[in-house]
Amino acid sequence: MIQHNAPALAFSAGGCTGSFFHEFNDRFIPLFITVNSVFSNDEDPILVISKSCNWWLRKFASLLRSFSKHQIINLDNDTTTHCFPSVTIGLLSHGFMTIDPKLIPNQKTLLHFHAMLEKTYGGQNHPFISNLSLKSRPRLVLMSRSGSIGRVILNRVDVKRAAEKEGFHVIEFEPKFETPLDEVYTMISSSHAIVGVHGAALTNFLFLRPGAVVVQVVAIGLEWIAEECFGKSARELGLEYMEYKIGVEESSLGEKYGKDDVLIKDPMSLQKKGWSREIMDIYLEQQNVKLDLVRFRKYLKKAYEKAIISMEKNGEHVS
């Protein structure tokens, strides 16, 4: 038996889904809320985690250490009896990707969470940073998706070329499981804009500096969830948030089902009873997009103007 002097915070890693969105929405933002709601400033809780995976503990080791200096107790492979002066079980949530300062004793916000991320991952001396020293154009990260997972930008090459013509230095990024999180943070936080179709990869907007630009491409049927998951949170972080809602002619669903089908004309009528597996499959997995470049370039032009303003405020040289 081990007797601990510090209180415990016990929660489940939920089987480690691997979804970047759910890692932050279901775990790390609620963990931040709970630590700042339940424990006093001089308390350092011991994290007691169940249903975690070795890869998950390795990938998020630095972030977990930001919440506690104590060694994590992994209930899945620890047979020792542990005694604590108190135990808090479960995590608090304020909703999708948000922190409500009215519900937290010290009035922490999503900006405080961002500051913790910067303290954890900022200041890294990666080769990526030194390679940027010669770049004086605003950097745009184009989130890529491939394969049969849905929401792929079918004319991605053309979109990249259009962004470059507007003046951006474009970095294509398709998140990989094995990419170290500190490298991802360095790339995103040193950029001035990100563009992507609604999906887990847009969670990386949490790493952007205030004033940077987020352009979320909203596919058919995803208006509500796009705003709830990313729109409100981006604005809470002081980001310049833009939403590009695609038309029927830009969605693969239009060709598959016909523009007069109810799932195209009135998605909300199908979703009002909830997000069933069938609904998710149609709008999230069956749907790809081909952006209207004439219309989308207007958004890129506006994003470029906002990115230049951000660079100037940060004292960066603009050519």
Describe this structure in words.
This protein is of the alpha/beta class. It has two domains: 2-121, no CATH class; 128-313, Rossmann fold. Helices cover 39% and strands 14% of the residues. It has helices at residues 20-38, 54-59, 61-65, 110-121, 127-131, 156-166, 181-189, 223-236, 252-257, 262-265, 267-271, 277-285, 293-313; strands spanning 2-3, 8-12, 46-50, 73-74, 82-83, 87-89, 139-143, 169-173, 193-197, 213-218, 240-245. Strands 8-7-9-10-11 form a five-stranded parallel β-sheet, sandwiched between helices. The chain has a four-stranded parallel β-sheet with strand order 4-3-2-6, with no helix packed on it. Helix 8 (223-236) links the parallel strand 10 and strand 11. 34% of the residues are buried. The model has no long low-confidence stretch (mean pLDDT 91). It is found in: Golgi apparatus membrane. GO terms for molecular function: pentosyltransferase activity. Pfam families: Glyco_transf_61.
Show the helix and strand layout.
Elements: E1 2-3, E2 8-12, H1 20-38, E3 46-50, H2 54-59, H3 61-65, E4 73-74, E5 82-83, E6 87-89, H4 110-121, H5 127-131, E7 139-143, H6 156-166, E8 169-173, H7 181-189, E9 193-197, E10 213-218, H8 223-236, E11 240-245, H9 252-257, H10 262-265, H11 267-271, H12 277-285, H13 293-313
Parallel strand pairs: 1-5, 2-3, 2-6, 3-4, 7-8, 7-9, 9-10, 10-11
